[in-house]
Design goal:
Number of domains: 1
Number of strands: 4
Number of helices: 9
Structural class: alpha/beta
Order of helices and strands: HEHEHEHEHHHHH
Largest sheet: 4 strands, parallel
CATH class: Alpha Beta
Length: about 280
């Protein structure tokens, strides 16, 4: 089915052009673009992990959302900027320039149709900066276009309560959390017998620099991992995945509600007129 995890009545691509033309309150209708990636996730997970999570989080959140709030999901964008993983077969990557151009042109079409609230719901940790560039440029071009560059895991959730301290710090790719979520949403595509724990090799010690954080260094995955895994997937469970998905989608319901109510600050409009000198 084309809609995948998205509820059919919330799937933008199932609307007709006349449905869209006649839609009331388009200015406050929330249009969500789920964005993932097709990239290696160790020997035990499919390359579709980020795409699957983006779609599942979007779909489950929309299913929980109050029916009175107008919100629709666009078709999932499977490909992303994944060049940190390109040494591993199966990774498909767009350049930053291509991804920016693609998102800008999708957004322009949404704007032209009369919508003014556009969410980039990104599930791939290698491209939040792309989302931020796109959002800022779109709002600069159209000051009535409210664009939200959001990362799946920054919505409120309880995943941290289920992970060890080491996993929370270093388990950033195909580890406990992502494997547990995949056991919840696509269990038939997880090969737990192949799962192996591997944490980053050669990280600097007694240094202000880190793999991720306030003072990061550039890296590709093969610099840090032989298997492509960064974390411990061997302890992943369906129960943890179900609990993570329930909490993160509850968080996204709150986010979508906030976006529906959001009004852009406009200090420039409220400024008092200056008297001529």
């Amino acid at each position: 089915m084309l809609h995948g995890f998205i509820p059919p009545d919330r799937f933008f691509a199932y609307l007709t052009w006349t449905d869209i033309q006649a839609m009331p309150d388009k200015e406050n209708t929330v249009i969500i673009q789920p964005i993932g990636a097709i990239e290696q996730h160790g020997p035990h997970l499919p390359v579709a992990v980020d795409a699957a999570i983006a779609s599942a989080v979007t779909g489950q959140a929309l299913a929980k959302l109050d029916a009175s709030i107008p919100a629709y999901a666009l078709p999932l964008l499977h490909y992303g900027k994944s060049n940190e993983h390109w040494h591993f077969p199966g990774t498909i990557t767009l350049s930053a320039q291509t991804l920016i151009a693609l998102l800008m042109e999708v957004a322009e079409s949404i704007y032209r149709a009369g919508f003014r609230k556009f969410v980039l719901l990104n599930a791939h940790g290698g491209q939040p900066q792309i989302m931020e560039i796109v959002a800022r440029d779109l709002h600069q071009q159209h000051d009535d276009f409210l664009v939200f560059p959001l990362f799946t895991w920054r919505a409120p959730h309880d995943a941290g309560k289920l992970m060890t301290e080491k996993e929370k710090e270093l388990g950033i790719h195909a580890g406990d959390a992502e494997t547990s979520v995949m056991l919840s949403i696509l269990p038939d595509q997880v090969q737990m017998e192949r799962a192996q724990a591997e944490y980053p090799h050669g990280l600097p010690t007694d240094s202000l620099l880190s793999m991720e954080g306030k003072l990061p260094f550039a890296w590709t995955t093969r610099d840090l991992s032989r298997s492509g895994t960064l974390g411990d997937p061997t302890v992943a469970t369906v129960d943890k995945g179900d609990r993570i998905m329930d909490s993160v989608t509850n968080g996204w319901v709150q986010v979508i509600e906030d976006i529906y109510r959001f009004r852009q600050p406009q200090a420039w409009k409220d400024a008092p007129e200056r008297s001529p000198s």
